[in-house]
Amino acid sequence: MEGKREDKTPPEHKCPALCDCLHSSVHDRENSPMMRAVLCAQVCKVYRFQKEDQRWLLVREQMSETPLSFSLPKQLLCMLMNEHTNRVQEVKKLGDLSPHWDGLRHDVINHCNHLIGCYLETLAELDKLSVSSCFKSSTSKSDRHLQFVPTNLHSQRMEVTCPDSTGMWYEVITFGAPADHHQAFKHGGLKKLLSKHTNRRDSFVSYSQDESSRARDLLASVAQVQPLVFGHAEELLSVSLELNTNRLLQVLDSLAQQTEQFVHMLKDELVKSALLAIHNQYSTQCSNSSHVHSNGLICDNLPASQKGQPLLHEADYDEEAWDRAWANVAKSLNCIVAMVDRIKEQQDRPQELTSSEQQEVTGKTNTGASSSSSSAASWQEQLLPLVVTFRDCVREAMEKARVAMTFVVLQGAAALTVSQGPVQLVQRRHAVFSQALSAVVCGFLLKLCGGLDDSEFLQQLYTAGVLVQFEGLLSTYGDEVGMLEDMEVGVDDLGRVAFTVTEAKTEQLDDLLPTLHGTWGSLVVKVPLPPEMFALLPQELKEGCLIQIHPVLFNIGINQQQSLAERFGDSSLQERLNQQSCERLKAYCNTLRDRLPEMAGVQSLSDLLSSLDRSIDTRKRKNVKVLWIAAMVCRKVNGVRLTSCKSAKDRTAMSVTLEQCVLLRERHTLSKQHFSTALDCMRREGCRMENVQKNVGNRKFAFSSVQLLTFPKLYRPPDGSYG
Questions:
Q1: Residues 645, 661, 681, 687: which is the catalytic one?
Q2: DSSP secondary structure string for all residues of 5-53
Q3: Is a pLDDT exceeding 70 seen at residue 282?
Q4: Which of 250, 429, 444, 713 is a good FRET partner for 398, with 20 to 30 A between their CA atoms?
């Protein structure tokens, strides 16, 4: 009984402004199929607060889980497995390779197969869990099979109704900082770990997915055309024995057409640049006594005679050699054409013979037969050396092109696999990205559904993209440095993600969930809307225009660990992140101002951005004003707001409740004397206390009195709500 009493709020701390909890929505929009698909397990609290004019605000606070916590990570896992399976198939199709390149292929295959095996196991576990849950608690953040799932992901929403206005919604997504708690942070986070592999990544030539795709297509096309060219060349020699110039010309015409197609393929600049890259790599390797495989093993260089590809080991590479290679194919064909023209000319030349000469020819039939046979042999003898030269030129060009395109495919595969570092590092990056992506997609869906009646907002989406602002409350001391390094990379990776809106097939919940398309590094999230919502979109969005994500991350540590970092440690990571994000935020706002100068409030951003700049430059300890200004800018430009600490349970609760009360004060004239009352009420009785309960099983924020002495005053919970 004593334990139960400790979990209950003492009677003297009951908030007088708290109304009865509501477990059903008050608006039809909130009960729409779209909202039911995106949000679940809702907890609602309703408050009454007094305004400065003595009238009352009705405030509805709502916290919800989302099925996206599991559905998006599972989709990402499937996409990554398919991508790596395809990559294994691609490199296996390259045929026999020299020992060096075969070693690289072996590395790629092993890397992909390892990831596929791990992701299959993870997916199987998620399939079991997602049937009964949409939520990963803070106590499960180190679970090996849940690293792709965001920790404690919730939408935190507030609806404000005034006597003279309809309800206005404010949203923020809360989740544990995207980080790999299973691998932990003994050696730092992603930013530090990836920097250790910079030199190894530099040893690979970077090719885009488009270039790798072109290389695969060129390999397939050239392999298909070469046998046709050789076949026509052989047919030309066979037809030459028939002494039929018309037939000879027909075969020659077919040969010329196939050769022209072959040469056209070879003129791709990608082949030339790849050959130069091969030479540069070989020159680098020759400067060392050994080369390092991507798996870290040292392998002695083999003699050039054992490589199987002498092309890759020319000491003096001539940049014009490739142009000469395909030009020689055309020249050797021209020689064949010229010879056939000469044969035809000789055949068609009028024979001015005297009658006695004609009788002599007629009387020597045996000699005539012999002469005919001799002529046939003569045609073939004239063509044979030219055809042999032609085939040699085709074979040389084909081999150079094959090696070049094989190099592109292998380097492209290696750049996306082994060059990214050990398998564990790649898994870590994928997992962190998955957590961040799930949270952002949830925030974007809520922002989109709430802004369908705002034409300026919809125009902004396809004109400038959407701002996504992460607010971090992590310290720069101990393990949280690694978490912040993980989070930095995860947020940066979101910059290569885009949204597109589609019309849902049905209003079934499964058909209203977003889907992932594309590949790692080029991901598109398709957001389906019910027909009545889709009809409200401008034509550009209906036609599938991509909505780019512009992510920024501002972090200010507020706990006792940050006090240690500021006094005895290093806060440079936080300072660099805030400075970089400020520059990115200014760039986005400038784009918005240039492209949509008439947009409401966009011209007033300069003062806020200048204030943000000054706040960052002052480097004041625990300068939470940086977070406040960044949040204000984000809301002014219709951005998606996300707030994180280690597990989104305690510090995050202080931040979102403060933000809600500031919004009530600044935008809805909450009485100043009731500001502290509202803040304490939300923290003691609001949705965030329910969040603590569902995560750890009690109703106390995990702070001690001593710790709170180091917190900024506005981030301290009321007495009786912590311990």
A1: 645
A2: HHHSPPGGG--TTB-----S-SSTGGGSHHHHHH-EEEEEEEEEEEBTT
A3: no
A4: 250
